[in-house]
Amino acid sequence: MPAPHYGGMNPSHPTPLARMVALLALALAASLGHAADTTAASQMQRWSDVSGQPVSAERGRVFFNSRHGGEWSCASCHGNPPTTATRHASTGKTIAPLAPAFNPERFTDTAKVDKWFRRNCNDVLQRECTAVEKADVLAWLLQFDAKKPGQAAKDKP
User: Fold this and answer.
1) Which keywords, in A-to-Z order, does the entry hold (predicted)?
2) What is the CATH number of the domain that holds 75?
3) Which member of 12, 44, 110, 122 has the lowest number of beta carbons within 10 Å of its beta carbon?
């Protein structure tokens, strides 16, 4: 028995427009999936590979909490420990937790990671951070565990 016709359209054979809409929906879904193109651990490894040096969480802790000759440190805006929402030191804008265990979206989009390291390093250091500085900070940030809230006290300088 032939398929019924509905105003000239056969539901088992989508129109070119319906196919185009379906393809666009798939493309959009795929592009949204690429927003999280990496992990914090992968970012740390990327910078460690570029620097050619092993990472040091302790160097990262010291770097994060130091003022580097200026008014601000990373902790000025991200807090110490960087496990809760804070406010930007000059704008007052809310900043989500920096430690990946407390904010799973952190360091998952390479373009955003590069953008924010560039901006924030320029604010704190008046230069871009080196690859080893980025790797070390991430090594320290990756040590925070949302299941161990008591760890914060030992991380204060």
Assistant:
1) Heme, Iron, Metal-binding, Signal
2) 1.10.760.10
3) 12
Closest to 65 measured CA to CA, from 144, 130, 140: 140
76 within a domain of the structure (yes/no):
yes
Cβ-contact 17, 104 below 8 angstroms: no
pTM, to two decimals: 0.72
Both tokens of 107, joined, read 């360091």
List beta partners, residue 9.
6
**What Cα–Cα distance (Å) separates residue 67 from each residue in 15, 60, 74, 89, 151?**
62, 13, 8, 13, 23
Are 130 and 51 contacting, i.e. CB atoms less than 8 angstroms apart?
yes
Residues 67-126: tens digit of each pLDDT: 998 889 999 999 999 999 998 888 889 999 999 999 999 999 999 999 999 999 999 999
